[in-house]
């Protein structure tokens, strides 16, 4: 990626992968004479859309993971292991509003391609199903532990910005984030994140990891209990009408932290 001659080929490869993995859609219709963005060009023929959708269904999940890893490494190459949390990267070109995707740097363009691929529903569902059966797909020598964790987070939450793990104990902060974001809809994703961290740990590191999981769990429960005790009546909100049933309904709508 550092050689100037290889960049056009890498960029073309990313562009082809984006079109192959993106869910086929109709060609966007320009409104009020405005020319449509090149990055949003769809497939004109309905038979071509069906053929591409059928081809996507036949892609083996191992090939999907290989593409995700390769594009991740391409976007991460110039960031020296910082994953997709680079401050001047993906957020600037989301939807192509501020910076043109066509002229963005290779690493930024690769991150955009990776996030767009992960946002395809069929990609996320097949990857999560495969990881639920065998979570070793992301245990690859080409990825360091933090890179594998960030790639899994992007697969699990493709529409959410990746969290930064700052502080004295980044591992415990990461575990707290997993527990705080967990609900009935994200149980599978949260479990996969914790399983990956455990499988990545050596025998010497496992005790420290389990200790961080235990302490993070206690801290999250304590915070939940403190907030519930300080706001027993629904954040102190005044209910109009003075009806007891209205008050109960308001309180029942408050989502618990854990």
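-> sequence recovered:
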């Amino acid at each position: 990626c550092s050689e100037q001659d290889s960049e056009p080929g890498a960029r073309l490869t990313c562009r082809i992968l984006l079109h192959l993995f993106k869910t086929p859609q109709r060609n966007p219709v320009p409104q009020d004479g405005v020319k449509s963005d090149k990055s949003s060009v769809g497939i004109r023929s309905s038979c071509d859309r069906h053929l591409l959708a059928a081809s996507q269904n036949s892609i083996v999940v191992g090939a999907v993971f290989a593409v995700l890893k390769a594009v991740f490494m391409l976007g991460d190459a110039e960031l020296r292991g910082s994953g997709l949390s680079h401050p001047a990267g993906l957020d600037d070109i989301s939807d192509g509003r501020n910076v043109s995707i066509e002229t963005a740097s290779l690493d930024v363009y690769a991150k955009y391609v990776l996030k767009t691929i992960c946002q395809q529903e069929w990609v996320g569902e097949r990857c999560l199903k495969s990881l639920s059966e065998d979570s070793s797909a992301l245990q690859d020598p080409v990825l360091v532990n933090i890179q594998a964790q960030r790639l899994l987070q992007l697969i699990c939450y493709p529409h959410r910005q990746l969290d930064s793990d700052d502080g004295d104990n980044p591992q415990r902060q990461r575990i707290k984030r997993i527990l705080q974001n967990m609900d009935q809809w994200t149980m599978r994703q949260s479990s996969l994140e914790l399983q990956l961290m455990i499988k990545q740990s050596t025998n010497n590191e496992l005790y420290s990891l389990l200790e961080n999981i235990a302490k993070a769990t206690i801290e999250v429960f304590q915070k939940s209990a403190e907030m519930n005790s300080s706001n027993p009546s629904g954040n102190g909100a005044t209910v109009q009408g003075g009806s007891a049933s209205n008050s109960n309904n308001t309180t029942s709508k408050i989502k618990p932290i854990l």
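Confidence is low (pLDDT under 50) at residues 79-90, 92-97, 235-244.
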